[in-house]
Structure formats: C-alpha cells, structure tokens
Q: What sequence folds into this?
C-alpha cells in the first residue's frame, strides 16, 4: 500500500517540477508524499489497553502543547512518543510497536499543520517529528532495525518514566515493567497540568472508541439498507408479475367480449 502511495506522490512531483517554480513544486511534492505515506490502516487488535492509554495521553499532551505554543512540553511529548515505540521493541512486542508506530505517524499527519506553528525554527522539534515519521512499521521490519530507529538523543528528551525502558541496554523485563506502569505515570503528569489538558486527554482517550462505534453503526446501516433494497426488489418483482397477470386476464376478457360481439353481429345479419 505504502509503495503505491509513494509512487503516486513521486509521479506528482515529476509533473509539478515542469511548471517552473522549483521551490513551490518541491514543497507541494513533499506534502503529497507526506500525506500519501500517512494513509495507513492501523491493526488496532495488536494494541493493548496500556498502549492505547499511552497513545491517548501522549497525543493529548502534544495537542495541548501546540494549543499553548509550548515548545518545551511539545519536545518532551514527541520524544516520549518515540521512546515508547522503542520500549515496546525492547519488551519483545515488535508487532505492537509497529502498530503503535503507525498510529502515532497517522496522528502527526493529521495534525501536521498545527504542529508546524510551533516547529518553525526549532530544529529539535523538527528532528523529533521526522524521527516519528521515519519509524519503521512494515511487516519486514526487524527488532534491531526498530531499535536503531530511535536515537539516544530522543530517549534522553523523553519523560523520565519511559527512559529506562527505551535505553539500548534495557532488558525485556525492565521494559515490560516500565510499560506496565507508564499509563499511571503519564496520568500523573496530566493531573499536574491545567484543566484544559485533562479534558483534551479525556477526549483523546474516547476518540478511538467513538470511531469504532461509528464504523460499526455504519456497517450495520449498510447491511440494513442492503436488506431493504432486496426486499424492495422482491416487492417490485411481485407487483410486476401481478400486473402481467392482470394484463393477461384483461386481454382474455377483451377477446371474449369482442368474440361475443362479433357473433352477435353475425346473428343479426342473418
């Protein structure tokens, strides 16, 4: 899927490059590539409750930092997003790490424009954003490749509760223990920020559930519509058959009437 999107983006870039304004074309092509690469389905079944809670809390922190134009909080949140990916790999949960990685990449793509309002001129934020965009999430990704994708610099900028789990030398047991306690640790951080951030975290936490419900309702409605259409087709078919029968009966009746009238006229002529 990703290769197909990137091929489309590359073709778009070639077309744009012939228009003359090199800088604008390059920016448009890069934007097209970013958008194409971001459209990926996340295997939510691979995400545990703990990981979903971490995603909800950390993305809410990012949104609040952007809203407050707070680069310091944004740096910590973005770094923690990356570090959590590596912690999952260190804990031996590679498949979950890939699903988690794609989930946060999708989040960045959806919020790219708002994040840019804080990123402008801040190379640390820009590097962290690019680091998340480049997290390997394909089926072919190995644990070693996944670990190397997150730098020590990013880990050192992350929230303290996840740093040990994301370090290169972290054991599987240590990483699992840190991830187990991560939601509670992240929750405490949120509790120490303004009420607006708490509300944002709550909203983010229920977003996935609401999306799932909406998808289920949509599917159910589609099934109901299909059933209704089939029923309507049957009714229309029955009506058409009944109309044909009536038409045939009417024709036979008319034939009999005409025949009787013809015979009556013949008898009168005698």
A:
């Amino acid at each position: 899927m990703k290769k197909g999107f990137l091929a489309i983006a590359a073709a778009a870039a070639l077309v744009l490059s012939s228009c003359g304004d090199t800088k604008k074309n390059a920016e448009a092509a890069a934007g097209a590539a970013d958008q194409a690469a971001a459209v990926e389905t996340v295997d939510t079944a691979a995400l545990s409750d703990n990981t979903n809670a971490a995603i909800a809390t950390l993305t809410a922190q990012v949104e609040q930092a952007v809203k407050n134009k707070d680069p310091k909080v944004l740096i910590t949140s973005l770094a923690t997003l990356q570090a959590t990916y590596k912690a999952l790999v260190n804990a031996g949960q590679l498949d979950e790490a890939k699903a988690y990685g794609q989930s946060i990449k999708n989040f960045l793509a959806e919020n790219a424009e708002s994040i840019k309002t804080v990123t402008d001129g801040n190379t640390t934020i820009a590097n962290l954003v690019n680091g998340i965009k480049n997290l390997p999430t394909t089926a072919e990704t190995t644990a070693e490749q996944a670990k190397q994708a997150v730098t020590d610099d990013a880990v050192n900028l992350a929230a303290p509760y996840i740093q040990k789990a994301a370090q290169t030398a972290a054991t599987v047991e240590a990483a699992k223990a840190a991830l187990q306690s991560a939601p509670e640790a992240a929750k405490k951080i949120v509790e120490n920020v303004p009420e607006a951030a708490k509300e944002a975290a709550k909203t983010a936490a229920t977003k996935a559930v609401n999306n799932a419900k909406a998808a289920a309702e949509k599917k159910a409605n589609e099934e109901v519509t299909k059933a209704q259409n089939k029923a309507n087709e049957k009714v229309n078919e029955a009506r058409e058959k009944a109309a044909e029968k009536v038409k045939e009966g009417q024709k036979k009746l008319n034939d009999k009437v005409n025949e009787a009238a013809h015979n009556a006229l013949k008898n009168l002529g005698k």
About this structure: The radius of gyration is 32 Å. Residues 1-30, 32-39 have pLDDT under 50 and may be disordered. Residues 48-193 form one domain. The chain is about 80% helix and 0% strand.
